[in-house]
Amino acid sequence: MRMPDTSEVLLQVEGVSLAFGGVKALRDVSLDIRKGEIRAIIGPNGAGKTSMLNVINGFYHPNRGAITFKGRTRAQMQPFEASRGGIARTFQNVALFKGMSALDNIMAGRTLKMRRGLLWQMLRYGPALAEEIEHRHRVEEIIDFLEIEAIRKVPVARLPYGLQKRVELGRALAMEPDLLLLDEPMAGMNLEEKKDMSRFIIDVNDHYGTTIALIEHDMAVVMDLSHRVVVLDHGVKIADGTPDEVKNNQAVIEAYLGVAH
Amino acid sequence: MADGGSFDTFPKLLLRNAAKFGNRPAFRHKDLGIWQTWTWTEVAGIVRAYAAGLQRIGLQPGDTIAIVGSNRPKLYWTIMAAQALRAIPVPVYSDAVADEVAYVLAHADVKLVAAQDQEQVDKVLSVSDRVPHLRKIVYDEPRGLRDYDHSRLVAIQDVIEDGRAALVGNAALGEQIDEIIRQGEGSDISIILYTSGTTGASKGVMLSARGCIDAVTDTVRFDRLTENDVALAYLPLAWVGDHYLNYAQGLAAGFCMACPESGETIEQDLREIGPTFYFAPPRVFENMLTRVTIRMEDAAHIKRRMFDYFLRIARRHGESILTGKPVPVSGRLLYALGRLILYEPLKNVLGLSRVRVAYTAGEAIGPDLFAFYRSIGLNLKQLYGQTEAFLYVTCQPDGEIYSDTVGPAAPNVDIRIAESGEVQFRSPGMFVRYFKDQTKTAETLTPDGYVKTGDAGFFDEKTGHLKIIDRAKDVGRLADGTIFAPKYLENKLKFFPSIKEAVAFGDSREFVCAILNIDLTAVGSWAERNNIAYGSYQELAGHPLVYDLVVKSVEEVNRSLAEEKVMAGAQIRRFLILHKELDADDGELTRTQKVRRGFIAERYAPLVAALYDGSHEADISTEVTFEDGRKGVIAARVKIRDVPAVGATEPLGRAA
User: Fold this and answer.
1) What is the number of CB-based contacts under 8 A between chain A and chain B?
2) Which of B30, B146, B262 sits opposite A147 (nearest CB)?
3) Are B268 and A150 within 8 A, CB to CB?
4) Which domains are seen in chain A, by residue range?
């Protein structure tokens, strides 16, 4: 796998803490995501991984700390600001429009890129039509890229889980994001589907140059895919480095296997 | 209308088509959701540029170039461009594993490889050290290949652009390419098709340009194909069927080849393109029917009633209407109504609305399945062929269609049945020789120039059509000399829904016996309807009423055998229903679900012995492998049933 060309930081999380009442989900966590890399966030159940992603894309607002994305620092951000800013994500449990076709779901990912207003789009005439054709072209490229031509017109509710995940990835890609957040992209998949998904993640990173941050439980996948790994446990960062460094880190081994008493 | 006529190479046909049908579509390919079209003029221009580009990266007349991938216009153009340079294209099955690819590439001495995408490029690179002459790989789909070492890797698009630029800059180069095309001769080797190698190492079948064009000219006339026809090119590129039916006939008739968007979209692409010429193996037709049946089971009651009613009408009158035989007026009216309500909409759903000629081949097709498609007005016919013939040996003419024959000899094909029962032929398209394999060539050709097919068959007395019964090496003889073709009998048995597998015995024996497997789904639901309780497959298989059910099917088979002079003596006289299903895990079937007759005979030796010693019961215990890999022993007492022979006088007692 290619290493990213630059060490330019795309997103910097500094001293973030997040609490839900008495539960401290994140405690003073700092991490950075460099432009062009695949960054994995791992940790045992309840370590705060999804909270971290939610903080990054503005769904949760941290109690303390700051987030710097593309050079702009802010403590609070709304999800729509995050997506306008170029952050797209997929969810742990697939969040698609179940009754719509795969094509329409991915088209929905282009919403923020549409310049014409609702009325023009309803007319489907002139500039709005031209714009739709252009968007459709981009979406077709993604369909081709993810090899889902055969399910273009199928309502996603009828698709097997692995393909739904792929459609969701397609919708995130349709936003042409700078940073793509993937929450357990391979959860519940069989080996074959995992392999396919891994290949697509590497290809997205390679082909579109998209920076990717992902949460994943399958260690083999994480070690193969990512350039750098950050490990959380009980809301605290316990390790950060290349897959090899993390694998041999004593604190990580203890967090995963438990400590002998 | 056009055909091969006096043209003796495919590049010359391409130029003819560009001149004659310039603006007609030659190729279509669905890309990014939209069907892209190239006319014959455009294709001729691209192929000329591509040929120039290939020449610049070192492809010389007589060189070989392998093509690995699925049906893409650029891969078909690679074949055209190679032929234009008088080089020899060698298509390779895209699903072949690396070792098989290595064997073919090395054996064919290929200098260049055209690969579809990263997957195929990886495969070729992984074996490149075993392919000594390999100089460069050209590829169609650039995705994922950006970071590869490009010293040996070029995009096909770049080769074409490079050639185009060179042609613009140097008029002499174009003249040179055209001159090579003009010099092309009918005796040039047009293509080497490697057989899939189910029987030993694959052999490179060399076909001459003249032979190929003569063969397709005949069938294009036979089926009246014209430049207005359309075919969906979805069969494996390296298979003779695709090269013949799509590529060669396309060039000869000038019709359009549509390439599917991907391997998974074929069903949808079929509907969108609506081909007029269609080929599919029986398995595909069976899957289509299953899909329809399943969907109908979920349909509303009234729709189901209509479906059943009009299919009955179709069964009664469809075949006669299709072949133009007299049909009563009421039948015609009902059939016309059925067309409006059911047959045409159904064909539309399947993408078969515009099909004028459809063929099936490769294995025996069930009579019911065959009759279904014909009855709804699809002109489905059978052909028999092989790579060595450049496909066609026989084919059924319109109006002479039978589910159990493969038709009379194709135009200009000369067939004879050897003493051993083997089918031998001479045909315009027959192969020149196997590439670098003098021994095999000599084994396959008879001294007087016929090709041995390796299949046994006979000409049906009633129709004059050829019937293929089995592989020649599997055909034996009963003690009295009657031909015994196990697969022929087994297929006849398996066409009955209650019989899933059949194994026939009889070589060097007095009479024929069979071991049967019942189909648990079909017989199970029959048992349910007839209030027959059973606890397991074994119990159901041994049930006397099930025997009564199956014996009717066996008698039916005997009746049909009695009608054929050659086969009348090979009727099934005794059978048993095995207590377990034959299974690939136990080595009784191959992984492709074919019965391993020899192995079964050994494993169930006590049962086979009992079939021939006249007893009516036999004990057997066999080791089986369970789904989780554990082994166990099944013991059973199996009943044996006698079946009367039809039209025969001598009693079975003679053998007992």
Assistant:
1) 33
2) B262
3) yes
4) 1-86+178-261 (3.40.50.300), 100-176 (no CATH)
Q: By the CB < 8 Å criterion, does B268 face chain A?
A: yes
pLDDT in tens, chain A (261 residues): 556 656 788 999 999 999 988 888 999 999 999 999 999 999 888 888 999 999 998 888 888 888 898 888 876 778 888 888 889 999 888 889 999 999 999 999 988 777 777 777 777 777 888 888 999 999 999 999 999 999 999 999 999 888 999 999 999 999 999 999 999 998 888 888 888 899 999 989 988 889 999 998 888 888 889 999 999 998 999 999 999 998 888 888 888 777 665
- DSSP-based three-state secondary structure for B642: strand
Tell me the angle at which helices B520-529 and B544-562 cross, rounded to the nearest 10 degrees: 120
Out of A2, A152, A207, the one facing B33 most closely (by C-beta) is: A152
Residues in chain A with CB shorter than 8 Å from the CB of B31 are: 144
Chain B: closest CA distance from residue A233 (Å):
36
pLDDT at A113: 79
Cα B81 to Cα B61: distance, rounded to the nearest angstrom: 11
- Identify which of A140, A145, A147 has the shortest CB distance to residue B33: A140
pLDDT tens column, B508-522:
999 999 999 999 888
Domains and CATH numbers, chain B: 10-206 (3.40.50.12780), 280-378 (no CATH), 476-654 (3.30.300.30)
The helix, strand and coil proportions of chain B, stated in percent and rounded to the nearest 5, come to 45, 20, 35
In which residue ranges of chain B is pLDDT below 50?
A: 649-656
pLDDT in tens, B537-569: 999 999 999 999 999 999 999 998 998 888 888
DSSP letters, B539-584, are HHHT-HHHHHHHHHHHHHHHHHHHTSTTTGGG-EEEEEE-SS---G
| Residues of A whose CB is below 8 A from B33 | 136, 140, 143, 149, 152
Rg of chain A's alpha carbons, rounded to an integer? 19
A2 touching chain B per CB within 8 A: yes
A150 touches chain B (CB under 8 A): yes
Residue with tokens 């195929």: B120
- How many residues comprise chain A? 261
**Alpha-carbon span B75 to B156, nearest angstrom:** 9
Which of B30, B32, B141, B262 is the best substitution to test chain A (most A C-beta atoms within 10 A)? B32
Question: Does B149 touch chain A if contact means CB atoms closer than 8 Å?
Answer: no
Residues across chain B: 656
